[in-house]
Amino acid sequence: MFKRISTDTMNTILIIGVILLVVEVVFFEGGLVFSLLFFGLMAYIGWKKYRKTWGKIFFWIGLIVLVFTILSMIAVRFFIVAVIFLMVRDYYRSKKSPEQIVPEVIRQDMPDSDEPILRQKFFGSQSTPDSSYEWRDINIHGGFGDRVIDLSQTVLPEDEAVISIRHLVGNLVIYVPYDVEVSILHSAVFGKTAVFQYQKSKVFNQVVSYHTPDYAKHRPRVKIVTSLLSGDLEVKRI
To answer: Which SS3 state, helix, strand or coil, does residue 124 take?
Structure first.
């Protein structure tokens, strides 16, 4: 997400936050600095003497009051609202224009590499490239955005290819060639599932399991394990 934020936008947020902090300290909360220093020092002393009973009491009282004091500040609330706004804005932008993530292409004349096809990415959408690429198992966590995986542009291993995706909010679309056997284990809190001819209009805190009839006997084959908080899974033949 932060890669998409311009320097001017980030500077504006920081300047507004500093101004709010100064105004709050000077005009509204004269004792705010004293409270932060006092309970911060209290938590620090308690941490140093944590083995003793009074040290535990000092630490937790100081820490809890310090956290609530910080969260009550107008500047901190502004930063929280600004981050939430940027997250929502970035999510809707990624829906309109998904970011294309080009994986590392491993050629025969190049040394072996452990670079993944798709990288861990919390915000924004990703997809495999349109050109041919060497297959590497996918095991990623995601936050917000769509994921598109096209297996028609790669050569799958002789044993079994694995796709494992744990995601919060967004849709997953996986294109599988007709000659590839598939095993799917999908769980979601909210969303819909469509796997070839099998379609489930609504999924609410359920697990969907599916495998093609010849999965155990034929090659190549791919094992897909996905988990979503909210989003649709669609597996299509291509």
So the answer is: coil
